[in-house]
Amino acid sequence: MSRTHLSLVREPRSEVAATSMLSLKESSPDETATTSMVGSDFADSWWKKICCRFDEIDKLPPGWDGYDADRIAKSTMIFSSLLLGNVYDEAKRLSFPSINPMSNGSIIIEWRTKSHEITVEVNNTNDVDLLIESLATGATSQFHITSDFSKISDVLEESIRPVHAIA
Amino acid sequence: MLFGNNIHPMLDLSKIQRPVDLPQWEAPPVDEVAISVQFNDIPGLKVVHYGQLADRYQKLGLTQHEDQGAIPPQFEVFGKRVIPPQFQFQAGIPLPRVWYMTEDRHRLVQVQPDRFVYNWRKVEGAGKYPRLNDVLPEFWDRCQIFQAFLADQGLPPLSVNQCELSYFNIIDVQEGETYHEAFARVFRFFNALGVADLSNGGSWEQDGGNLNLAYIVRSKDNTPLARLHSSVQVAERSNKQVIRFSLVFRAPWTKSVGQELVEFFALGREAIVRLFDSMITEQMHTQWGRSVSSGR
Fold it and tell me: Could you tell me which chain A residue has the CA closest to the CA of B255?
């Protein structure tokens, strides 16, 4: 398996033409992005940390756990990145999450707030578990998610508020 | 109607009937249709397999081959953020994408380590677009061949994560017509000024440009199922100015390549046709022969 490098693409790319066999001379995909102030220093720094972390995970060799773990699949890393991109508006208000590979090939993303521990386990593409644990009571709630990350946004949003029950 | 043979599971086309109120066109500007599944990388797939696979497709007349760069993985995800950032993984030495084509480039299978695509393409003298119900069985059959090949080679089965149906339309810009005039002639939503005067005595006029719009397709219970992308691009083809109007239905998919997926593609076709229908002017509907009939 070849080495990969993760980078954030700010400019919208063409979402439609990839599978066509037709070669056309097209105008530039987006001439408007160069002077935009999309993003911010904070966002750039946040995303840079995300990219660095996934680069580190991508460099893990087979057997990286001291046993016989495979390398983390590229598709799982991309899907995890998309998940983080989707919940960024809420996540940016929390401490930077810990992002760790697991021996079974999944990626665990965790936030710890004053009241809750929020664990997102990306098992595979379209296969995500969300676990919420109350630090005060130890009560847990679990949800399975495929491709709609609204629930994760809701949970992160709630965890920012001074409310205890979010599950 | 059942399609299949002794090797491949049967496909029940009777379950992918067009809705009776779905419009159709006698001479639509469809230039190309692509049916695609994206899957997790197939571990163990090597360049040599591409050559062995060519032998199987040769029997179906796919005798021509070309190497292409791999299509980057694309995932549709949903949530509160309307435009999430996009990521790309830059691979060191990725396996290429290989085209297996008929000699007239009319039909095409594309294979890369994480994607299988079947294309029908309009070719001069090779007949008009045969409709999705004719192309779907061809996709099905060629994908079954690919899956049988993987099994014969001891490679793991496809773990599909996305599916995609794309229609690429090519619309000529008429002699003496500007792009702006062509946009206004073709697209119902396009009413912007093509030229305007400025206070300095000068003016501006449309020079080119692209329009991209995306829609979320939801189920009856409001669950997001897919995203429908439309794109209008100015382009040149054979030194002629054209408008390329692309419609792509892309969705997360976690099941196998089976009857259910084929039925889902039929939903994609419906979404694409209804969007196309809503975007096009009456003038073009008349020119392309729009009708609504109970049919295939």
Answer: A126
Distance CA A102, CA A111 (A): 17
* Tokens describing residue A88: 């960024």
Percent of chain B with pLDDT over 70: 91
| B128, pLDDT greater than 90 | no
**Chain B nearest C-alpha distance from A1 (Å):** 8
**A4 in a structural domain:** no
**Number of helical (H) and strand (E) elements in chain B, helices listed first:** 5, 16
**pLDDT above 80 (res B262):** yes
Q: In chain B, which residue ranges form alpha helices assigned H by DSSP? A: 47-58, 132-152, 179-186, 259-279, 282-288
Distance (Å, rounded) from C-alpha B279 to C-alpha B201? 35
**Residue of B81, B93, B235 with shortest CB distance to A25:** B235
Two structure tokens written together for A151: 């629930």
Contact B185, B243 (CB under 8 A): no
Contact present, A112 and A92 (Cβ < 8 Å): no
pLDDT (tens digit per residue) in A13-50: 556 667 776 555 544 445 544 454 455 677 778 888 99
Q: Which residues of B128-150 are buried (b: 16+ CB within 10 A; e: fewer)?
A: ebebbbebbbbbbbbbbbbbebb
| Number of other residues whose CB lies within 10 A of the CB of residue B228 | 21
In a domain, A5, yes or no: no
Mean pLDDT, range A82-107, rounded to an integer: 94
Residue A7 falls within a domain, yes or no? no
Q: Are strands B2-3 and A140-145 parallel, antiparallel or unpaired?
A: unpaired
- Number of independent structural domains in chain A: 1
B119 in Cβ contact with B107 (< 8 Å): yes
Supply φ then ψ for residue B205, to 5 degrees.
-145, 155
Residues of A in contact with B88 (CB under 8 A): 6-7, 9, 13
Least CB-CB distance to B99: which of A21, A30, A86?
Answer: A21
**What average pLDDT does the segment A2-8 reach?**
51
Q: How many helices (H) and strands (E) does chain A have?
A: 4, 7
pTM of the model: 0.88
Q: How many residues comprise chain B? A: 296
Q: Is A166 domain-assigned?
A: no
What's the average model confidence in pLDDT over B240-260?
Answer: 93
The tokens describing B104, both together, are 């007239």
Interaxial angle between packed helices A74-86 and A150-160, expressed in degrees from 0 to 180 and rounded to the nearest 10: 50
Q: Which structural domain, as residue segments, surrounds residue A23?
A: 12-160
